[in-house]
Design goal:
- 33% of the residues lie in helices and 26% in strands.
- With 393 residues, it is of the alpha+beta class.
Length: 393
């Protein structure tokens, strides 16, 4: 057997180009890094010097292909941990852990985070405030829900991420038509009371069941309205002593405990209702926030959350303690919009506050590092206008 096969192996699943600092940290700590990726990602700018082996699959989300492939790789490799680099890979990683009997989240634990109905039901049992909701099963229950919670409603896929596949429905006839269209797929959705309000996200790290780092940010236009309405999306870090930030840090701890997250990153969303000023739980995920939110966190705090996610996993594997690094208490903002220009060049925007310029075929976006919350708000508003004039369809 080759010597490098004696190293403990971390197998990462990638359906998107994400989590690069995770791979770098595993390599730095002396682990054998094995990456299984979608074939279309083979020419992306991965940190190849930190990846010992990589294998291509037509689709890493397809079963039983992945179970066959990873079981084949395990013949002459001691796979110690399996990690998902994208939200859509969480279920696959859980299924593979179950199959290979490896530590980490299995199917049931992963479903609490991936399945919106599962995490809603669990949160409801803990008495945490959330919008009214129902699964799409019994039609009498559905009619009772619509009678109790007046339109509009939100129809959400239970297993998709972000705002993908979500519909806002204004009256019952539209709902019944939509359910007819879904056919046998309707039970994979949930129906939710629509609550107008401001949406926030809490990005956190958990160690031994306790939140050891968290950062509270507030979206501009809610993500569903911005992305589905083809508008400008933004989020900004709140002042650490803001009453909303303090309240949401406390609420997030309750959510983490309720769902039994033991270690790793979480991304949780809440809405502050306009009608009563109270916070309501929306959804959570056992992953690093997507859409360049990891860069927002880095700009505000200096913490590279993907690297810390790796440090946590490896500390757990080696039975060592984990302590997050000391972080800055700075401010940051993220802004993104659909772009009529693929891989839009943003060099004409020469603000000194620009921390990172993502490159995307579909979106134009920037991450800002600022001196204050007020400065972030002003700059986001100015850049939103520039995006509309220069880049948006």
């Amino acid at each position: 057997m080759l010597v490098w096969f004696m190293k403990p192996t971390i197998l990462a699943i990638a359906s998107e180009l994400k989590g690069l600092p995770y791979l770098v940290e595993c390599h730095r700590q002396g682990f054998h890094v094995l990456l299984v990726m979608n074939e279309r990602l083979k020419d992306e700018l991965w940190p190849w010097e930190c990846i010992d082996e990589h294998f291509l699959m037509p689709e890493v989300r397809r079963q039983p292909d992945m179970t066959y492939a990873v079981s084949y790789l395990a013949r002459d490799r001691h796979i110690e941990r399996i990690v998902a680099l994208d939200d859509y890979d969480v279920e696959m990683a859980a299924a593979l852990r179950e199959h290979l009997r490896l530590p980490g989240m299995g199917d049931s634990a992963a479903r609490l985070f991936r399945d919106k109905l599962a995490n809603r039901t669990t949160i409801n049992q803990q008495g945490i405030r959330e919008p009214g909701f129902t699964g799409i099963f019994n039609f009498d229950d559905l009619r009772e829900f619509m009678h109790t919670y007046k339109a509009p409603w939100v129809l959400k896929p239970r297993m998709l991420a972000g705002s993908e596949g979500i519909s806002k429905l204004e009256e019952s006839e539209s709902l019944w038509r939509k359910l007819d269209e879904l056919g046998d797929q309707k039970s994979f959705y949930l129906l939710e009371q629509f609550i107008p309000g401001d949406v926030y996200h809490v990005d956190a790290l958990v160690w031994q069941g306790e939140v050891v780092f968290s950062l509270v940010s507030k979206y501009g236009v809610p993500p569903m309205a911005a992305l589905q309405g083809r508008g400008v999306f933004s989020t900004r870090v709140l002042p650490r002593d803001h009453e909303d930030a303090l309240a949401l840090q406390s609420l997030n701890k309750q959510v983490v405990k309720a769902l039994g997250r033991q270690y790793g990153p979480t991304h949780t969303e809440f809405i502050k209702a306009h009608h009563d000023g109270q916070f309501y739980f929306l959804e959570t995920a056992a992953r690093v926030g997507g859409g360049n939110i990891e860069k927002l966190i880095e700009a505000a705090t200096g913490l590279v959350i993907w690297q810390e996610a790796a440090r946590i996993d490896l500390a757990e594997l080696k039975a060592e303690n984990y302590k997050p690094p000391k972080v800055k208490k700075g401010y940051a903002g993220l802004i993104a919009a659909p772009s009529k220009i693929p891989f839009a060049d943003t060099s004409s925007l020469d603000y000194s506050e620009i921390f990172f310029r993502p490159r995307s075929q579909e979106f134009v976006s920037l991450i800002l590092k600022t001196k204050s919350f007020k400065a972030t708000e002003a700059l986001l508003a100015e850049i939103a206008q520039r995006f509309q004039e220069d880049f948006m369809p």
